[in-house]
Amino acid sequence: MRLSNLLKPENIIFHSLAATQEEVFREIAGQAEQEGITKKPKKIVKGLKEREKQSTTGFQDAIAIPHTKSKEVKQPAIIIVTTKQGVEWNSMDSRPASFFIALLIPEKEEGDTHLKILSSLSRMLMEEENRTQLLKAPDEKALHAFLTEKVDLQKEGL
Amino acid sequence: MPDIKIVAATGCPTGIAHTFMAAEALNKAAAEEGVDIKVETHGQSGVDNELSPEEIDKADGVIIAADKNVNAYRFDGKPVVSVSVGKGIKDAGELIRTIKNGEAGIQKGTSRTEEGAEPTEYSDSSKGSMTHALYKHLMNGVSHMLPFVVGGGVLIAVSFLFGIYSADPEHESYNPVAGMLNTIGGYGFQIMVPILAAFIAESIGKRPGLVAGFVGGLIANEGGAGFLGGIVAGFAAGYIVVGLGMLLEKIPQSLNGLKSIFLYPVFGIFITGVLMTLLVEPMSAINAGMESFLTGFQNSSPILLGIIVGAMCAFDMGGPVNKAAYVTGTALLSEGNMYFMAGVSAACIAPPLITAFATLFFRKYFDKSERNAGSVNFILGSTHITEGAIPFAAKNPIIVIPILMLGSSIAATLTYLMGVEVPAPHGGFLVLPVVSGVLQWLAAILAGSLIGGVIFGAYRRAKFLKQTGLKSSRDGKEEENLETQQLA
User: Fold this and answer.
1) Which of A152, B117, B158, B168 has its CA 20 to 30 A from that of B376?
2) Interface test with A, best of B12, B14, B16 (most A CBs within 10 A)
């Protein structure tokens, strides 16, 4: 499995109008429902919120990685949402977030390759250079190309 | 400073993103600081890049960046910085420098908490707290026994719904379905003590311990030694196997296969078996002695009788002492004394209800499986299935059993004082229609159960407050494996 199996180009939403955490989550869950990743978007929103309660998923440079593991997730998926305006996320650098990489993980363990991919994605984000590239991506297509290349290459390099 | 070596462990509750971000951050920061690092990740897919005991031993310091248990007891005696996973991502460089500059404190075998990091809950059992290790072994047995108690108990309780004699083929109310349910539930109960013994022994002596523990537990059960006998069997079997391991150390490596498939089982079972057989030998004598002792008291004052009956019934719940009280009750019942049995029943019904009320009123001081078992105990208590309280008692017999004895004594004493008569030897509240003095009997049982329940709950609360931060030892598995690896 590769990142491209988890991240479909349709699941990258640029310039969302969501302005609160709730709205960002609804955007993510709505997209998940539309793509058949889940049948119960409300449960997804709830799961994402609960994870956020444990500790913030806000990272730095406006990036946050909300994620949830739920039996309502039918297949593992990544959904990326960028918002027009910054959303308060209690991030580590105290700045609002506007670039959301949501990881949706099913409850059932069917191999752990998707988890490996998600972990290399997380590791990749630690590289400042990569973050800059992400935030600079002009459109969905460019972002998708950058991420798949970066993560899948890194994986093969390991 | 050349060649500084650091080991680190990262983990977060979901184990998907932050665990790995922190690992990456530490790797990067270590490269910048020019130190050598190995980072173990506790992620969703398990532990990766696991640290070996040698690596930990050689390391100059340890960084824990985790919001979950990463088995920090391994790092006892090393300089350790322990922080939340978030801090690991954000301040990795600072953490590395703390170790590099030798500013980290030495981790002792006690709990330490820093910014939401999991306290090191396991003191190293090989050198540290002995009682903690004993408790952990006991818990392993109890947690495996619990489902058998619940499953068997509920099936037996359901069989009573057909009538309390419905499982007896000789009786006119015999119902084959009830008979089957009762038999199946009975098997669940029969294996309860062997399971308890087996998994106490497994916790101590791994698989060879399990084998000897099963047989030892079976002997305890068949010999009528009850769950206390099972606890003895479990510890005996576990340590016998550990002792065997030391004796067999000198045997050449090439015979290792022989060890695990032949020497451990044969000698483990043999020594445990002989010991347990000798131990259960006096059980029938104890049982008979207690019976004649009790019969001598049958006409004494209601208060004294109540205290004795209550204490006996709750002492070992199915062991020789409890059985003595119960058998005396049924014997007197057949002579037409329905007064004595009323107290025995009350005292047998109270223990599960005590645990049920305790988990109801003091919910948050019990773990999830205990809360569920507590709710089930409303059913088991109401149907005179005392065994429901065993998992609670077995976790800490020295304190919990006296509490149960007190509650049962109150229930029995009040029952005798109010002169209640119960003409049935079993069935709990299902026999209420034939009880004379129903309300008094219920009041007596409730009083004993509530008082006992509040004391038990208060004890758990005090214990919890004393060791805030400690969790139930379910995720202690890996430690057990480490300890006993040499045996396999």
Assistant:
1) B168
2) B16
Domain boundaries, chain A: 3-157
Beta-ladder partners of A12: A80
Please tell me if residue A118 touches chain B, with a CB cutoff of 8 Å: yes
Shortest Cα–Cα distance, A119 to chain B (Å):
6
Q: Which two tokens stand for residue B187?
A: 């098997």
Of B16, B18, B24, the CB nearest to A115: B16
A112 has a chain B CB within 8 A of its CB: yes
Q: How far is B43 from chain A (nearest CA, A)?
A: 9
- Residue A117 predicted with pLDDT over 60: yes
Select from A59, A60, A112 the Cβ nearest to the Cβ of B45: A112
Residue A107 has pLDDT above 60, yes or no: yes
Count CB-CB contacts under 10 A for residue A138. 8
Could you tell me the domains of chain B?
5-106 (3.40.50.2300), 130-281 (no CATH), 284-466 (no CATH)
The Cα-based distances of B65 to B59, B62, B95, B116 in angstroms read 16, 10, 9, 10
SS3 B471: coil
Q: Does B180 touch chain A (CB under 8 A)?
A: no
Tell me which range, B60-64, B299-303, B420-424, B448-452, is most confidently predicted by mean pLDDT: B448-452
Q: DSSP 3-state assignment of B151?
A: helix
The string of DSSP letters for B116-142 reads TPPP-----TTTS-HHHHHHHHHHHHH
B271-315 per-position pLDDT tens digit: 999 999 999 988 888 888 888 888 888 778 889 999 999 999 999
Q: What is the pLDDT of residues A41-97, one digit of tens each?
A: 999 999 999 888 877 888 888 899 998 888 899 888 999 999 988 998 888 778 899
Of the candidates B412, B435, B438, B441, which has an alpha carbon nearest to the alpha carbon of residue B422? B435
Q: What percent of chain A has pLDDT over 70?
A: 92
Q: Do A67 and B21 touch (CB under 8 A)?
A: no
> Distance between CA atoms of B169 and B375, rounded to whole angstroms?
32
Mutation site, A56, A123, A130, A131, interface B, largest B CB count within 10 A: A123
Tell me the pLDDT band of A154, cut-offs 50, 70 and 90.
low
Please say if the pLDDT value at position B483 is more than 80: no
